[in-house]
Structures are given as structure tokens and as C-alpha cells.
Amino acid sequence: MEYFLHILVITGIYIILTMSLNLVVGYTGLAALGHAAFSCMGAYVSSLLALNYGLSPWIGLVLGACVAALLGIVIGFPSLRLKGDYLALATFGSGIIVYSVAKNWVAVTRGPMGLPGIPGFSIFGAEISSVWSYLILVAAFVVLTYLVMRRIVRSPFGRVLRAIRDDEIAALAMGKNVNKYKIIVFVVGAFFAGVAGSLYAHYITFIDPSSFTVMESIAVLLMVVFGGMGSLAGSFVGAAILVIFPELLRFLGMPSSVAAPLRQMIYGLLLIVLMLYRPQGVLGKYRWK
Amino acid sequence: MINQIIANGLVAGAVYGLVALGFTLIYRSVKFFHFAHGVVYAAGAYIAYTFAISLSINPVISFFLAVVLAGVVGVIIDRLVYLPLRKCKAPSLVFLLASFGVFIFIQNLLQLIYGAQILTIRTGPVKEGHHFLGAVITDTQILILVASFVLCLALWMFVKKTKLGKAMRAVADDRIAASVVGINPERIILAAFAIGSALAGAAGILISLETNIEPTMGMNAILKGIIASIIGGIGSIPGAMFGGLFLGIAENLDIWKISAGWKDCIAFVILIAFLLIRPGGIMGVKSGGERL
User: Are A104 and B98 an interchain contact pair (Cβ–Cβ within 8 Å)?
Assistant: First the structure.
């Protein structure tokens, strides 16, 4: 039961990540392949503040997300000038750069040894530690993220995003500052990825760079595409199925040396099959251009 | 010291260059990033391992077989995944994502079959290298350098002089116009995948003579291959080799001056700098720039 709840918490964190990436990829049509960089930033900033300065994880979460958003500006400002495959490559590269900084800046991040003993969230001085309370906490953040995302995509701002996705030149001709919109949406996505990263760090209480590899970015992208490009409900479906389904392999009694590559193989195959038969995803409407 | 750095950089760069050559050859004919090229490189090394070590076949024969089979793997990927996508005229990002899928699938298939641990093809004692202009260079490294330059030159001659090579250039310039004059683009794409993937397999085998092999080796190779072909000028054959050597030397300078851990970081900083400042690469090709 404990284990099942744990999986639900992880699913919740992935739903936040998937929704934030869906805003960038699904709604605005930007091929961003480095989303783990932002959750990495959020996780490290908030953990280091808590470990080194004893800062409350609540403040750490906000600061971590803000620094992740700042990183979004740093990465987005130059790379959003590129398009298509080249944007994909530049964001992918940024993901590798951030991962490699987390791994090699040993003086601050302790490199591959990771950061153990990260304190959990506390309410009125009492640290919450049970899986139940984390489930409620993460669920609250999922709802919050969902409401913010829904507000964004249904507003006139969101309409401009879809216009950029469907026809960038037309949006430009309508007098919209396309670059400004792209950067804002990229930064908002980075902010929520930072929130997800911080939640993850304080829940697991241990982080190391291996949780934020480029493969992680591709897994989140797969969740977006599988659930549905430009569909928030799809993000719930995509994240839930792709987190929970591979866990079932564990119950088939496979040793981890078989289960781990098998799980990845299923991901790979799923990505190929989706691209061949339904590139817009299960609930999505928008097709890649 | 600097001579040794340059020698090491040239050896590393020659392998990046080989991967970039295959990648660029395929890119010219299909116009998308064939990311799974990296896993073909890893598959080449593993196939060579199977023949040479597991089945104890003569190394030269098994390496030859592995190069041919790597070409076959590339063609199979094209037929099973890319051909259906081409038929429904999918955009290049869909190709890229499908290619990621192929990459993840085959890499983990290798891990499932051979295990995650490192394997080695090298046999016999390690020989001391030759001293040359103050740098020490081993027989294997000389083999890597010579083989890479011969393959690069051969490919360049092939594309410049032969009829199939000319047809390839025609398809690279304009696929529709090429089919109007009676060139079958599908045949050219098939040839590009066969030759390009065989080159990746050759690169994988060469590197396995120098270091160990592991299932995840393809990731580093394709990243460096893509970076090399972009900084060389995407689609340009000499550019791919130049880009590879440039990257190899830059990385080794960085290992010398900073630390080995940062080399991926530096490689991508170089890439992003090129994408922003000189998207056409060293050779200044147009095809990279027009898509930006």
C-alpha cells in the first residue's frame, strides 16, 4: 500500500512536469528537449538552500522555481531564435550542459555522490513525513498547476500561443511579438518544472545528477506526446500511464537487470509506434509541423 | 605536451569525424537528424565483439562482417521506421522523435543481450607506443587515424566521381528534380543508409580497439557526431571530418587545461555558439542556414 502511494506521489510530480512541458511543446509548438535541466535546477537550488542555510523548503521551493525560470531565460533567449530540429538540438544541448554542471561542480553539488538528507516539508513546525501527507501536498500542487495552465491556455495569451504553433508567420503578421511570447511561455514552463524538481527533492530526500539526464527529458516529452499534444487532460493520462505501467513489470518477478532495459525498450517502441500511427497522441489534436 | 594533446585530439576527432561522415551522408539524402545513427555505431562494436570474442572468428573477417551488418542494421531501421514516415510526409521533428525511439530501443536491446557491464575486444598485451615529434602514439591509434582518413577520402571520391555518388548529390540538392530526371530517390536513400551505417559500424569497431565497449557508448558518439557535422557545416563531407578533428582537439585541450568531466559541456557550448553565430559551420554551407 505504502508502495502504491509512493507511485502516486511520483505520478503527481510527473503530471506537473508533463503539463509544464505541454505548454511549451503542445500549445506553442516549440521543440524543447531539455526539460530536465529546469527540474534539476529547482531541485538543487531548493535542496542546497535547505541543507546549507537551513531555509524552509517552502521558501526553497519558490526560490528554486524562480532560479529555474531564470535559467529558462538564459537558455530560451538565445536558443528560441532557432527553429525546428535546431531548436531541439540547442535545448537538448542545454540539458546536457546543466546535467554536466550538476555532475562536475563537486564543490557545490557534491557531484555524482549526490545530496543526502534533504529535509522534508513542514507545517507549523512539524515535519511531514508520511506518504499520505505527501500525496495530499503533491495533489494540491497538481491542482494548482492545472488551474494556472488552464487559465493560461484559455486566455487571449493562450490563443496567441496556439496561433504561433499553427502559423508563426501569420501570428507575426497580426502584430504579435512572437519572440516575446515564446520566451514567456518557455520561462513559465521552466518555473513549473522547477516546482516539480523541488517537490521531488524534498520528498525523496536524496538527489543526484542521474535523476536529471537527457533521457529523463525525453521520457517527459514522451508523456506529453503520448497523452496528447496541447491537451491538459492528456498530460494526466500520459504521465499516469507511463509512470504506473512500467511498475507493473516489477510485479512480474523480473530481475532488475532485465526489467530496467525492458522498460526502456517499451518506451522506445512506444515512441516509434506513436510517431508512426498517432503523432498527436491519444487525446491530442495538434500534429507536429 | 601540446604535441601529445594534438595527437590525442586527432585520434578522438578522427572517430567523431567517421560518425559525422555517416550522419552527414544520411542527412543529405533525407534532411532530418538520424539520431539512431549512434546506436548503429554501438551495434557495430557489439557485432564485432560477438564474432571476434564469443565465436572466436579471425578478427579481420569478423570486423568486415560487422561493418557489413552495421550497414544492414541501418537499412532495416530505414525500411521499418523511416519509410512509412516518408510515405505519410511526416515533418522532420517526427522523424527525430521516432529516431530517439529507435535509439532507446536498440541501446536497451544491447543491454538486455550483453549486460550493462563493459566488454573489451582487445587481446594480447598492451604494446608501448611510438615516439613521434614528442608525442607517444600507439599502433591502434595509427590504425584509427589511417583508416579514418582513407574512409573519408574514399567517400569523398565516391560522391564526387561515381555515377551513384552524383545521383546522391542530385537528391541532396533537390529530391523532386532528381526524380524528374529518372533518379529513384528511394534507391539513393537506401544506399545512403547502407554506406553511412557501415561507416558508423567501422567507427564503433575502431574505437573498441582503443577503449572498452558498453551499451551506452552510442549516445556520446552521436552527440559528438552531430556537433562535428554542424560545426563542419551540415551536409559537407570534408566539413564532417574537419568538424570531428576540431572537436577532438578542442576537447583534449579542455581535458588538459580544465578537467575531463567538463568535455561534454564544452562540446555543447561550442555547438550552441556555432548555431547562433555561424550556423553554416566552418565550410559555410547554405543548407544549414536556410532552415534557421
Answer: no
Model confidence pTM above 0.90 = no
Of A104, A221, A261, the CB nearest to B262: A104
B29 contact A CB<8A: no
> What confidence tens digit (pLDDT) does each residue in B50-105 have?
888 888 888 888 888 999 999 999 999 999 999 998 888 888 888 888 998 999 99
Q: Has the ipTM of the complex gone over 0.85?
A: no
Average predicted confidence (pLDDT) for chain B? 85
Identify the pLDDT of residue B291: 38
Alpha carbons B16 and B32: distance in angstroms, whole number: 19
Instruction: Extract the C-alpha cell encoding A202.
Output: 524534498
Task: Report the range of poorest mean pLDDT among A138-142, A274-278, B109-113.
Answer: A274-278
Task: For residue B77, give the chain A residue with the closest CA.
Answer: A272
The residues in A 190-249 lying below 8 A from B, measured between CB atoms, are 215, 218, 221, 225
Within chain A, residue ranges assigned H as helices are: 2-22, 36-53, 57-79, 84-104, 106-109, 131-154, 156-166, 168-173, 178-204, 214-227, 232-251, 256-277
* CB atoms near residue B109 (< 10 Å): 19
Domain ranges of chain B: 12-216
- pLDDT tens for residues A89-131? 888 888 888 988 888 888 888 888 888 878 887 777 667 778 7
Chain B residues whose CB is inside 8 A of the A84 CB are 92-93, 291
Sequence letter at residue B259: S
Task: Provide the β-strand partners of residue B213.
Answer: B119
